[in-house]
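TL;DR need structure tokens for one chain.
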Amino acid sequence: MALGSKELATDQLDGFDKDRLVEELRKAKEELFNLRFQSATGQLESHGRLRSVKRDIARIYTVLRERELGIRPEVLAPVEEATPAKAEKTRKSRKAAAKDDSSVGTEASEEDAK
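>> reply
TL;DR here they are.
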């Protein structure tokens, strides 16, 4: 079982965009600084929290790096369920786009033929 914050589990980090991950990283580093300061002054009550915050930071860095390398996919926009009306509009727009694409291709081939 992975230790760390329950709100920063890997599957939840997958749903965050890059800006949100950077913000979570900033918060975690700030918390780690405060925990270290409390530890140095003898005010820290939960020493296990230091370890879990460090793991959260490492987890965020890992997700960011994996996205950079293309190992982990970027966040995708939530998919809307298509209603019949939307599906009909989509089909019509696809047909129109295909028609436009085919006419563009023929114009280019006619110009190439000259």
